[in-house]
Design brief:
The protein is of the alpha/beta class. Helix content is 33%, strand content 22%. It contains eleven helices and 13 strands. The strands form three sheets. It has a five-stranded mixed β-sheet, with helices on both faces. Helix 1 crosses helix 7. The chain starts with 5 loop residues before the first strand and ends in a 12-residue tail after the last helix.
Amino acid sequence: MAQSPVLIGTRGSALAVTQTTTVAEALSGLGGFDIELVRVRTEGDINRAALSQIGGTGVFVAALRESLLRGDCDVAVHSLKDLPTAPADGLALGAVPERVDVRDVLCARDGLTLAQLPAGAKIGTGSPRRAAQLRAARPDLEIVDIRGNVDTRLGRVAGLVEGAPGDLDAVVLAAAGLARLGRLNMVTEYIDPAVMLPAPGQGALAVECRAADAADGGRLAKALAAYDHADSRLTVAAERAMLGRLEAGCTAPVGALARVDADGITLEAVVCSDDGTRLMRRTAVAGERTEDAARALGVQVAEELLAAGAGQLTDLPAS
């Protein structure tokens, strides 16, 4: 008797469907089962207001999680940076696939870099984290709040997409998303993390499932375990623990980047004032490469930031 396909939940955007299809095909190959995509509309897809106005945290994942718990799908795929740091009852992070490029990128008119943009140039982003670090690097630029899918945002750049509005000089996006959509030809600069630390979890995907399915040793659990990338899970564990300890959501002007090497785990984090006039960075190292050590490292860095007055830079409930 043929087994039923594993149902993979996804948002409906081109980027979400592309990255979910990659995950689905990998799981199918590892587990030897058929898959079927289930498209789910989230609050973040429906509401076009600024993320800071609609709450940010969880707006892209809540509907997918509800579908999982109802049994409408067996797995949900998220951009990990959109995932709230608090545990979700009944759900488990079944796999973190190997992380790709974590950097933010500039897509500008005429091939310009951030340093080459003229004073007063308009740069679009919907991220307070990017906006604050842009203002810190180039206080003479005008930051414009934008929403929309990747192609919509690229169309806002003058001369980049024929027939599009082209009312901005540049936009800032994630390298990972552009790579998955085959749009890296639009990039005019990969922004060094020394200038712009990425969002916690940027460049990584989260594959969520029901907790019972992750623990039952079945075909899906085995495929998820095989798909999980240990170092990627460690880096996002550290970054998310830092974010969770700060009690900061995905709309907070907070960046983080963890790295794993032979000596352990290194975590660098930044908290910014919204206007970019003040930035506070901290870096710490854990000698062990375990999830517990990664989470402890994240908490340590967050507490160092709080002790140094990070709560005076932006609204951090933990302060």
